[in-house]
Amino acid sequence: MDWLAKYQAVIVCAEKIVRIHWGNETLIIHGDVPGAAPVARAPYRLAPSEMKELAEQLKELSDKGFIRPSSSPWGTPFLFVKKKDGSFRMCIDYWELNKLT
């Protein structure tokens, strides 16, 4: 989340576009893959502590306006990796989605 703020990333869900300011340029990433069928993988199992962390991180991301509820047919699983300080880092598994690009 700090990275998104640092680079003033703008995610436009309705247009499936991400804009990232990089120096004096703006990188624009388009999310549509022409002709691709939606990829949706089942979520990984989470421990109760990870479920709690998930709720907290999703609330924080939603409160900051980075995410919103969606009914998209696209989906990818994620997992949590414990950092040295005991906090969790959310890692998104883009493996199936990356195969399309």
TrEMBL record:
The keyword Nucleotidyltransferase applies. InterPro entries: DNA/RNA_pol_sf (IPR043502), RTL1-rel (IPR032567). This is Putative reverse transcriptase domain-containing protein. GO terms for molecular function: RNA-directed DNA polymerase activity. It comes from Tanacetum cinerariifolium. The keyword Transferase applies. Transmembrane segments: none annotated. Keywords: Nucleotidyltransferase, RNA-directed DNA polymerase, Transferase. It comes from the Eukaryota.
